[in-house]
Amino acid sequence: MVSRKAVVVLLLVHVAAMLASQTEAFVPIFTHSELQKIREKERNRGQKKSLVLQKRSEEVGPLDPLEPAEEDENQVIKLTAPVEIGMKMNSRQLEKYRAALEGLLSEVLLSTQNADE
User: Fold this and answer.
1) CA angle, corner 106, sides to 101 and 108, nearest 5?
2) d(CA 11, CA 8)
3) Model's pTM, two decimal places?
4) Do 96 and 22 contact (CB within 8 A), yes or no?
5) Which has fewest Cβ within 10 Å: 8, 84, 108, 110?
6) Separation between Cα atoms, residue 37 and residue 19, nearest integer Å
7) Phi, psi dihedrals of residue 96, rounded to the nearest 5°
8) More confident residue, 60 or 48
Protein backbone atom coordinates (compact mmCIF):
# COMPACT_ATOMS: atom_id res chain seq x y z
CA MET A 1 0.00 0.00 0.00
CA VAL A 2 1.12 3.58 -0.70
CA SER A 3 1.98 5.71 2.28
CA ARG A 4 -0.08 8.76 3.14
CA LYS A 5 2.90 11.08 2.67
CA ALA A 6 3.38 9.88 -0.90
CA VAL A 7 -0.30 10.44 -1.69
CA VAL A 8 -0.22 13.94 -0.20
CA VAL A 9 2.95 14.85 -2.13
CA LEU A 10 1.47 13.56 -5.39
CA LEU A 11 -1.77 15.45 -4.73
CA LEU A 12 0.15 18.69 -4.08
CA VAL A 13 2.19 18.21 -7.26
CA HIS A 14 -1.01 17.63 -9.23
CA VAL A 15 -2.68 20.77 -7.80
CA ALA A 16 0.44 22.84 -8.53
CA ALA A 17 0.52 21.52 -12.10
CA MET A 18 -3.17 22.40 -12.59
CA LEU A 19 -2.63 25.92 -11.27
CA ALA A 20 0.40 26.38 -13.50
CA SER A 21 -1.56 25.30 -16.56
CA GLN A 22 -4.31 27.84 -15.76
CA THR A 23 -1.95 30.80 -15.65
CA GLU A 24 -0.93 32.51 -18.87
CA ALA A 25 2.78 31.88 -18.31
CA PHE A 26 3.35 35.01 -16.22
CA VAL A 27 6.33 34.56 -13.97
CA PRO A 28 7.63 37.69 -12.26
CA ILE A 29 11.33 38.08 -12.94
CA PHE A 30 11.88 41.21 -10.89
CA THR A 31 10.67 42.08 -7.42
CA HIS A 32 8.43 45.08 -6.86
CA SER A 33 11.29 47.23 -5.58
CA GLU A 34 13.48 46.31 -8.57
CA LEU A 35 10.68 47.30 -10.97
CA GLN A 36 10.34 50.65 -9.20
CA LYS A 37 14.09 51.25 -9.57
CA ILE A 38 13.95 50.37 -13.28
CA ARG A 39 10.99 52.71 -13.85
CA GLU A 40 12.79 55.52 -12.02
CA LYS A 41 15.89 55.03 -14.19
CA GLU A 42 13.75 55.14 -17.34
CA ARG A 43 12.07 58.32 -16.13
CA ASN A 44 15.45 59.92 -15.48
CA ARG A 45 16.69 58.92 -18.94
CA GLY A 46 13.57 60.42 -20.51
CA GLN A 47 14.09 63.67 -18.64
CA LYS A 48 17.75 63.80 -19.70
CA LYS A 49 16.79 63.23 -23.34
CA SER A 50 14.16 65.97 -23.21
CA LEU A 51 16.71 68.37 -21.73
CA VAL A 52 19.21 67.53 -24.49
CA LEU A 53 16.55 68.08 -27.16
CA GLN A 54 15.53 71.35 -25.55
CA LYS A 55 19.14 72.56 -25.52
CA ARG A 56 19.54 71.60 -29.18
CA SER A 57 16.39 73.45 -30.15
CA GLU A 58 17.59 76.54 -28.28
CA GLU A 59 20.92 76.37 -30.12
CA VAL A 60 19.22 76.23 -33.50
CA GLY A 61 16.91 79.08 -32.60
CA PRO A 62 13.19 79.43 -33.01
CA LEU A 63 11.84 78.87 -36.50
CA ASP A 64 8.89 80.70 -37.91
CA PRO A 65 6.18 78.06 -38.30
CA LEU A 66 4.83 79.83 -41.38
CA GLU A 67 8.19 79.56 -43.16
CA PRO A 68 9.18 75.95 -43.79
CA ALA A 69 12.87 75.26 -43.52
CA GLU A 70 14.79 74.55 -46.73
CA GLU A 71 15.70 71.09 -45.52
CA ASP A 72 12.05 70.19 -44.94
CA GLU A 73 11.06 71.13 -48.48
CA ASN A 74 13.56 68.75 -50.07
CA GLN A 75 12.93 65.89 -47.68
CA VAL A 76 10.47 63.22 -48.78
CA ILE A 77 9.71 60.14 -46.75
CA LYS A 78 9.00 57.03 -48.79
CA LEU A 79 7.90 53.66 -47.50
CA THR A 80 9.95 50.95 -49.14
CA ALA A 81 7.82 48.02 -48.02
CA PRO A 82 4.44 47.53 -46.39
CA VAL A 83 4.59 47.11 -42.64
CA GLU A 84 2.94 44.15 -41.01
CA ILE A 85 2.21 43.89 -37.32
CA GLY A 86 1.81 40.40 -35.98
CA MET A 87 0.85 38.80 -32.73
CA LYS A 88 0.80 35.21 -31.52
CA MET A 89 -1.99 34.09 -29.21
CA ASN A 90 -2.94 30.73 -27.79
CA SER A 91 -6.51 29.42 -27.85
CA ARG A 92 -7.28 30.59 -24.31
CA GLN A 93 -6.18 34.13 -25.14
CA LEU A 94 -8.20 34.06 -28.37
CA GLU A 95 -11.32 33.10 -26.43
CA LYS A 96 -10.64 35.79 -23.83
CA TYR A 97 -10.15 38.61 -26.36
CA ARG A 98 -12.53 37.37 -29.06
CA ALA A 99 -14.94 40.32 -28.89
CA ALA A 100 -12.16 42.90 -29.06
CA LEU A 101 -10.46 41.13 -31.97
CA GLU A 102 -13.73 40.85 -33.89
CA GLY A 103 -14.31 44.57 -33.39
CA LEU A 104 -10.85 45.43 -34.69
CA LEU A 105 -11.25 43.16 -37.70
CA SER A 106 -14.64 44.64 -38.56
CA GLU A 107 -13.15 48.17 -38.38
CA VAL A 108 -10.32 47.16 -40.72
CA LEU A 109 -12.74 45.56 -43.17
CA LEU A 110 -14.99 48.63 -43.16
CA SER A 111 -12.06 50.97 -43.72
CA THR A 112 -10.76 48.88 -46.65
CA GLN A 113 -14.24 48.75 -48.19
CA ASN A 114 -14.59 52.53 -47.86
CA ALA A 115 -11.16 53.03 -49.41
CA ASP A 116 -12.13 50.85 -52.38
CA GLU A 117 -15.27 52.89 -53.06
Assistant:
1) 95
2) 5
3) 0.28
4) no
5) 84
6) 30
7) -65, -40
8) 48
